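Researcher: Next sequence.
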Amino acid sequence: MAALAWLLIPLVAAVGAGLWGSWANRTRKARSDGPELDGYARFREAMERPRIGS
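Model: Next structure:
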């Protein structure tokens, strides 16, 4: 019986991880990456500019 309990622990953890993953991903389709990509584009442009005075 103790072996069964030890086998149930990873099973319960896997089910919990699956539930948490589906809950965490529930709004990802509604959000877009627009603001993050715009910020990255500004950062990349700033890094490509030549430095002045150094």
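Model: The chain has a mean pLDDT of 86. The helical segments are 2-24, 34-48.
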